[in-house]
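Re: Re: token formats

Sure, here are both.
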Amino acid sequence: MWGADGARLIRAGCRRLRNDLGYVVAGTLCVGLGIGALAVSFTVVQGTLLSPLPYPEADRLVTLWCHFDEQGIAEDFLSEVELLDYARQSRALELVSGVLPWRFNLTKTAEPEQLVGARVSVGLLALLGAQPLLGRTFSPDDAVPGKDHVVLLSESLWRRRFGGSKDILKQELELNGSHHQVVGVLPQGVRLGEDEWDVWAPLATDTTRLPPRNARGLLVLGRMRPGVTLAAARAEALTISNRFASAYPDDYPSGSGWQLRLVPLKEHIVGEAKPAFLLQLATCALIFLAACGNVFSLSLARAATRIRETAIRAALGAPRGALRSSFLFETTAVALLGALLGLSIAGLVIHLLVVAGPRQVPRLDELRVGLPTLALALALAVVAGVVLGWIAAGWAHRHAGWHHLRDASELAAMSRSSQRIQGGLVVLQVALALVVLISTGLLTKSYLRTLRVNPGFEPDRVLSFQLFLPRAGYPPPAAVAFFRDLEEELRTLPGVRHVASVSDLPFTDSDSNGQVSAESSPEATTDHQGAAVSWRTVTPDYFETLRIPIERGRAFDGSDQVETQAVVIVDPRLAARLWPGQDPLGKRLRLLKWANSEWLTVVGVVGAVRDASLTLEPREQLYLPHAQRSRRMMSLVLSTELDPMSLAPAVQRRVRQLAADLPIVNLVPLNQLIAASTARARFNLWVFALSTGVTVVLAVLGLYALAAYAVAQSRREIGLRLALGARSGDVLRMALGRILVLVSAGLATGGLVSLWTSRLFQSQLFEVAPLDGTAWLVAPLLLISAGSLAVLGPARRALSVSPITALRQGSGWRRAG
């Protein structure tokens, strides 16, 4: 019996929906936009913040960092000595391993290639719980110097370069000029951070010849013992910090604010993106509620047209439950159709994010519209459909009195309570749209401000690429000669103006840093407390190539050689810190506890350069001549009069002529590297822009629906006023005046909410105040303009009402047959 009744209910509901396609299309679109936006945001949050990292018991994995708060260093790597000492003293961590990012030149092949990888402690793979797809992982013997010429390959490299052949375990590869035995292949997904490494090599440690304690460059990971809390592990790290400071006061000065800190690995990977992701999720949740508000308005309007039908069915004895069920089925069906549309939109957007999204967004390639998102979307659709259907059914029953059987003119009349509800929804939609518009305006202005930041050099028409010379065959004099000869070759290319080399190219996540000590006077024999600085090795034309201004003194030249006086160039911030109020030229400093740490004489001061981010203040920097402190990994920069990429083939040929086996890496225009540094801000802006578009569309639909209904309900009064000679302005004020009041209330509410929400993402803004006047002025004007367009159609219909027709319809007259 119930089955037959249910079938009749479904058939009748489908028939009614088919006869009211306008309601179906509008409701499906509103729910689809709301659920689509929420599904995208939830998928991002679930895949990045909620999903565990792909390691066993990943919540026990932590990273270890050095902090020098008083020196402005929030996160610094550890040295090998610090890693070994911490591992010996820690009881909270059962495994501690170090990671040293590395580059490997794969040569003696048809196509040489530079591979991204790392040297790692032999226990790292056990710490991560990784098992090899083929072969074995590292053993303790592999960490012995001289026995460390073994490597693990990633599955992607194994399949791409070696066809997935199992014979790879019998092969030796030439990496950086030395033979390495392949002992295993790691499966897809074994990685740290955003990029998958091609090659893993053991970190060999010679305990008899350890580098200085402050030679930091290791990312250190640990696994907490079962039962150990993060708070306990952090307390132990602070205790070990105090021991280090007491035992080695020269390395950890009392005024530096130094200590060891533990950060969960997941927090380290996604920490900076977390506020933006959560803010986007909250915004999309509000968008979904706004979409439900539109469907609610549509459902009430539709229920009003069915009051006569409801009254007749009730008079004929139809059960109240059956009448309510018909409303529930129809609204739920529309909501489920909207959910399917929203999931389709979400799937497309997530696919585009994975394929084309910036790699700077953490765990982006792991995103999938999976079961959690599917369950959420369907659950929200069912709940929304049931709630809205229940309310609409209840409203229809309350107004389905006997008078509706007698007076057809009252069938579409809405009660004052329903009008208040619909008006309240419009206020909320306008308020939400204003909040999102202001937020997007602030982010847009912040992003545009970022693009206008002067990095301290000229990146336009500059081609850059990187070369890594193998240790074998390129001792320091040979490395200096190679880059000098290559620069001379490249200068002969048509359109090339200047050529230079630098050890760490700005905006490449490559950096060398340490501490320096200034000589207080020519007779001084003791050092001042070291100041942490970033340093680069450059060839003489570097400053001219990138047009970095020489503020005082001179640039490097051919006279700066190994056998001549050791020289250095500093930036104004470092000079002011080391020699406040003094002329830095002729002053001396040295690099603390580095090899060949002789005194360096300052011969020039150059402009400050932003090298890591356009939004961060330039770091204190110094420059060393390549001839005096050579490096084998260098980036070359060519300033040209042409399109930089038009020179790429000629550059590759010249490099091949000097070293046929040397792979060229990151051959791109320099301004492309700077653009990549703003990728995360650009991603956040696009997400908010899409959210803004959806919100404004929903608000406009709500205003249009309310305006159209207001005009339809006022046709008789409009006709009467026109017949009595009313002016157009009076008619519009009568028909649409309430809407203007609602829009004003929505703008006021949205403005008050924005006072709070704009401060939530202040950390995402650059040189823009949360109460920036431009965003707060433009956002309401855009919304008012969009709202005006929404009510334009209903307003025109109001003015085109025929008085005679309106009066006939209002009085119930009928044309004689």
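Second one below.
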Amino acid sequence: LWFHFKYTILELSTAVKPYAFEHLFAAYDFDRVVYLDPDVRLYASLDAVTEALDSASIVLTPHLTCPSEDGKRPGELDILRSGAFNLGFIALARSSDAQSFLVWWQQKLYDHCVVDMPRGLFVDQKWIDLVPGMFAGVHVLRDPGYNVAYWNLAHRAISRGERGYEAAGARLAFFHFSGLDVEREDGLSIYQNRLEMRDLPEATHQLLRAYREELLSAEYLTCRRWPYVFGKFRNGVPIPDAGRPIHHEAPELAATIEDPFSEDGYAAFLRVWNEAIQAGDAAHQGVSRLAYRIYRTRTDLQASMPDLFGGNYVRFLKWMLVRGRVEHDLGDVFLSTISEALRVHQEHRAGAQEGADAHRDSEGALEVGGGGPRIALTRLAAKIHGSRSELQRSFPDPYGRDGARYLVWLLTYGKAEHGLSEEHLAPMRALWQSVVRAQPDAGTRLKYRLLLGGMSTAVRMRQTAVRVRSGLTAFAKPAPFSVRREGRETGPLDDSGVNLVGYFHAKTGIGQTVRGAREALAATGIPMSLRCADDTGIDCLHESPVGPMSREFPYRTNLIYVNADQAILVRRRLGDAFYRNRRNVGFWTWELDEFPEEWQSAFAPYQEIWTSSTFCQKAICRLATVPVHCVPYAVAPVVPEGMGRSHFGLPEEKFLFLFAFDVLSVPERKNPLAAVRAFEKAFGGDARFQLVLKVNHADRAPAFIAELKRACAPGAVRILDASLSREEMYGLIGCSDCIVSLHRSEGFGLLMAEGMYLGKPAIATKYSGNLDFMTADNSLLVDYKLIPVGLGCAPYDPVSVWADADVDQAAAYMKQVAESADLRSRLSIAGAEFVKANLSPEAVGRTIRMRLEELRNGRG
């Protein structure tokens, strides 16, 4: 039982090989036994194998017979890691050499048939690298027709002749379909990026297509869902694969527990893996043994979080609870230690922050430890330091040895440069006083006080010089704050409206966001001054005018609809004076459940952040240094009169499904290929239905668009890649019968909201920002599983997760919508009522007005 318990389905399937060989030789008296992986298909007799076994005891096939180092995967280094020989094939002849080899191989695979690349192990394959040197009678079969697969296909072109399929001119004996996605006709293997399907000869396409058809006709999709018989404890709790080798961590368990699948086995397993690792200091001892095993077996985690028990401790805890949970299929019972550690950390941090934000005396300002006094900076002080690289160079340790000097800077130059009020300065001044009082001698205390006095004098002299150069006397009464923009002077700052900044002319989601905000402000009568964040660039395609851009910005509140990744760039364009002495509110969206740490400095100039959905709010809050509030997009599409299907060249008689996406929004996230697959599953060649794909900026991703076109059946799927005005986009939505979006993740889901506003039934993934307005009562929500983002989807982290929608369920929903007028009517009415009540410019305007009033009253 332990042999079955300690291995995953892949590991167990390979670990049994030497035992199976031994059984076949003993029970059936075979002279020769050939092993082939289940994803291998024979195309000719194995004459070369039988000939080799006439004189050899062991026959192996190498992964590579030619150099393969072109920067693509798998390269020669990848092959070294996984093994020189591919164990999808091995053949043995009855002999003393083969018997000795099997005994040795069994010993190795009994405990060490694992996928553990850092330890140099990849199931059974790496052990076989030793075989040609350790055993006689080994034959390496280099015939190009044997074990053809993605790793050697670049050197073994497939063709078709009178003898059938050939590889590099030799008769193809067997092809290894490792990593083939049977449901995708546009891929060779998920484990390689060297070969594109479009570059492969037609014979290879025929071979792959025929194999897929054979598998599907043999009910492969049903078999694929069969559970691993050793995948759960007897109480039904899934066994996490990462924890199966528990006998290495606690060898006494195998001696004391006969059945690891039993209730006793479950209890012992839980106890061992949830035990906290005793490493680091007392504040960093919440990493469980299971979590630590996952960490040490993954080089990607070690590279991205090298200081596990120090600076990366909290990040790793969060990773375990979000991405680690999904990637390693961990139930809550295996994360209890991690959850508790994060809770303790957050409570400790919250308590420390409350103390830092209060007016504290010396007892609360300093934490004394082995490294000397530590200063608990206020959140604002920490934020200013994090936003300015020159401060980080001048004060590299603001919480320790550089803390006193940094506080002096804050109380002098920082006060002037950031317009800090007395409310901001009071806790900083209290910190400063406590730091001075904590100094060991009177001389040091005097030195710090003189430093503060000298810098205060220097700042006053500089301000006086500026006023003199401006034609003002040093003794004049300070004028109300005003802003000079483009040569014109505004009056005192006005609290009644907002300066609204964004990409007003851009044909993108963020452009429509700020245009919607303008409509919401106008609907509730809030005065505004408009400023385009950037009037140049590929995205500024000049939509219909939204009103004149202003040269004056008289309002105290800046509302800046620019995402975090562009916030610093836009701040440079506008200038620091635009932000100084203002209430600055940023509007950001982010489509994954973890906000990028590298953007944390973007919070610096803002008093609070608004975002489009509760999904985004939760993601941003994890790193936010300011309050984050949900303010949804304003939605009010109007279909132009007379803009029917003929305007777009669409058939009048067909039932039309519509999906629209922007290539610049990462097409993999929008996932149009899933919509195509669902449509074709639902309707096949039924000419009564059509899927319309509206693509924006199609010219920016020609390879993806070409792939999309190859996936679309002619006539059944129509791709519109022409540039449309916003009014035309509304007209296209009005022409459709149903909106569909099988997205991986959305910050909001504008297409679905606009379609529902116009009374269109909507089918969408049951994940992310669209769930704020899509419910089981007003739309059809498609189930999903979480999968890693993967490579090539920048700016998204490859190890983050997003949704993979259930295409079969989506296809069923498409058929239901098309066939049931009652269902369409119910969804149409419910969807339109909800969106108009909650997302209209008037509704969103009321939310904005409430937030602005809270800000003015200091209750952010």
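The radius of gyration is 33 Å. Residues 442-469 form the longest helix (28 residues).
- S.
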